[in-house]
Amino acid sequence: MPTEPSYGEGRQSLVDAAIAVVAESGLRNLTYRSVARRAGVSHALVAHHFGSRDSLLVAAVERALERSLDEAPLEDSGGLERWGQALARSVATHPDLHAFQFEMALEARRNPEFQPHVERLYEAYRSATRRALRRHGIDDPAMAQIAFAALDGLVFQQVVLGHESWTRDGVRALRRLLAHVVGV
Question: Which intervals hold domain HTH tetR-type (predicted)?
């Protein structure tokens, strides 16, 4: 019989299990039972904590954003090079976290209920990119959008193809491009 996690850890472990299930098997395979199996608990506990699959997914999107920004914080004052290294390492260490976010972005096209949550996810990344660039003297929202789009693409390619060096090299090239265009 599965055992329940200690108080306070249950909900978070279920959310982390949902992220892993979606990343590994896709949204169509996300069920209370698959999350419970992954977390080592009963499926009734998943239903108790979330009440619906959509509520579980919304909580998972929030958790994924929190974990991603903790893993490779754009607020780090170590510069774009150092941040690029942290980003590539984060994707290599936690590919499921990033794969989950891309799965949810695609699902938002099919299920409008998720659109606001995915928009909030992307807005948090765009805002963090804007703040990071502002610290380097670039206060141009369009430039921040382009930089974020490049970073998002690099992360997607690393998730799909597994080439950590492409992300590191891409961030270095983005820095050079920004320096050339804006004079950073």
Answer: 8-68
